[in-house]
Structures are given as C-alpha cells and as structure tokens.
C-alpha cells in the first residue's frame, strides 16, 4: 500500500513539473523544422570578389567602362539618403576626416552591406548574424518585446527584436551608436535612428529590404534593398585579429602597410 502511495505521489509530482525532456526535445525539433536554413557564407552581391584593395570588381568595371554597376554597391553608405541639414553637415564632416581614419570593424548597419562574408545561425529563440570582423548580431525571436527606453543604451550593433512571417525574418533594431564612429564610410546617423529589415530567400539569393528612420538626420524614411550571394571561397568563419591591423589607404584604394620594426624578423 505504501509503495503504491509513493508511486502515485511521484507520478503527480512529474505531472506538475511540466513537460519531460523528451517532450521538450520533440517540441523544439518541431519548431526547428518550421524555420528556414540559410546555410553557407553570404556576401553582399555588389561586393562579391572584392580583394584586399577594397574595391569590388563591379566598381572597377564601372570605372573602366563608365557604366553604373548592375547591382548597387554600398547602398547603406549614405549617398542618396534623404539627409536634412544636420545629416548633410555630418556627411561633410565624414568626408573631411575619413581618409585618415581606420575602421574598427564594420558594425551595424554596414556589416549587412559589406565585402566581408556573413553567416546566419537560426534557432527558434534567436538568429545570430556573424562576420569575420567580430560583428555578432543577436536577433531575438522568442516573443519578447523591445525593451523600454529606460532599458536601452546605444551599442555598435544595437538591440534587435524579430519574428518570423513565414520564411521572412522581420527585424526591428534600435539604440545603434552613430555607425560612422565605428566604420569610416558608414552613414552618420543619430542614436535615435530606427531600423526595420525584412530578410528572405529569393531563388539563390538572400534579399533584405531595409527602412531607416531618424528624426535627427533624415527628412523621411530611407529605403534600401540589399542582396546577398553565397561566397564559395569560404569553408569556415575566421575571426580577424585587430592587434595586427595593417590596412592602409593611398588616397584611392586600401593598401597593406609595412610591419612595425619590432614585428619584423
């Protein structure tokens, strides 16, 4: 009788403790099955094939033939954005100081429009977007809301909350530091900028529709369409060590600076 009572109590305790590990695993497997799988390493289509010189093949062809590239290059750099007077002043200052500045990476939003490859790791709870420059975006898709203003503070990659609409990842990003501080040709937007993205597969390409609104620097919404293709030259993501950044600039293209004497052997 006592053993039967103990067994009954144990069964009741398990019932009250919630789903079992097997049930959780089965449910999570089912949630994974609903998600797209964007395997491989992706690079901005207009930047595909870029070498250490920092100039995309499409840009070189444009210079030689005097034609616009078939795919826009660096759409988020700021040219053509609806800048107001404050935005125009910031763009002028960017042009003045850019040649003497080094990049600390790409940061957001420029990491999404770069010659550097991107990797998408998708789980039910969040999507990670990773670049070799140490850029990592955490896009939370677990149902949480965007934090209140008192819980937001500007960072290089901002705070991103997303959800899935079918196979489209819908993302809202806030609290991004002025991107131009981190990357010398990034748009000098304010920390009040609001970024909206819709990322999906279209055939063999990834497509991102981006809308940026910033009451400080823009007169209205700034829209851009980014496309990505798989870069078959990558078989792993190698993170770059900025302790040995020897990227230079000769006024036209990036160069490799000589090593410091103490680094030469």
TrEMBL record:
Q: Which residues form the signal peptide?
A: 1-22
**What are the entry keywords?**
Signal
| Protein's UniProt name | Uncharacterized protein
Please give the organism: Croceibacterium selenioxidans
């Amino acid at each position: 009788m006592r053993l039967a009572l103990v067994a009954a109590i144990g069964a009741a305790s398990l019932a009250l403790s919630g789903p079992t590990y097997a049930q959780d695993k089965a449910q999570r497997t089912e949630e994974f099955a609903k998600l797209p799988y964007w395997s491989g390493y992706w690079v901005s289509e207009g930047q595909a094939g870029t070498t250490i010189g920092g100039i995309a093949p499409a840009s070189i062809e444009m210079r030689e033939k005097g034609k616009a590239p078939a795919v826009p290059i660096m759409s988020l750099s700021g040219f053509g954005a609806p800048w107001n007077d404050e935005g125009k002043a910031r763009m002028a200052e960017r042009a003045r100081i850019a040649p003497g500045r080094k990049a600390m990476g790409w940061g957001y939003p420029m990491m999404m429009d770069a010659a550097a490859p991107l990797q998408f790791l998708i789980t039910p709870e969040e999507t990670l977007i990773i670049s070799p420059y140490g850029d990592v975006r955490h896009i939370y898709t677990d149902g949480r809301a965007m934090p209140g203003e008192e819980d937001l503070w500007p960072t290089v990659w901002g705070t991103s909350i997303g959800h899935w609409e079918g196979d489209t990842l819908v993302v809202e990003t806030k609290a991004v530091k002025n991107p131009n501080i981190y990357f010398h040709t990034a748009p000098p937007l304010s920390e009040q900028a609001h970024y909206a993205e819709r990322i999906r597969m279209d055939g063999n390409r990834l497509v991102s529709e981006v809308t940026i609104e910033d009451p400080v620097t823009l007169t209205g919404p700034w829209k851009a369409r980014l496309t990505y293709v798989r870069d078959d030259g990558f078989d792993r993501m190698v993170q770059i060590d900025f302790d040995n950044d020897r990227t230079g600039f000769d006024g036209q293209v990036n160069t490799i600076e000589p090593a410091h004497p103490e680094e030469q052997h």
